[in-house]
Fold:
Amino acid sequence: MDQSSWSTVRRLVEWLDEESQAPAEMARLLRVLKISEEAGEVAEALHGVMGSNPRKGLSHTWEDVQNELCDVILTGMVALRTLTPDAQKVFERRMAQIAERSLTT
Structure:
């Protein structure tokens, strides 16, 4: 993620903070829970691509799946930024840890 992406995330968090009717602690919780909602939409789109629900048939495309995955990623970024102003550093540190663990032999 580049600086522009994190700048957009910061602005989205500010907007959500301004518009939220929930107390701050509840808003934090709801933003983390939103990730599960978005993940469910990925699953729904996958079922739609595969036609696994006979009642709905082929109701989604792979582009829909891609869009829903982007929503999951963005929602995770917003939740992380809600928890810490150092979200970019936290994310980059964690990505480096995972890469070191997974990509080195």
In short: The chain has four helices and no strands.
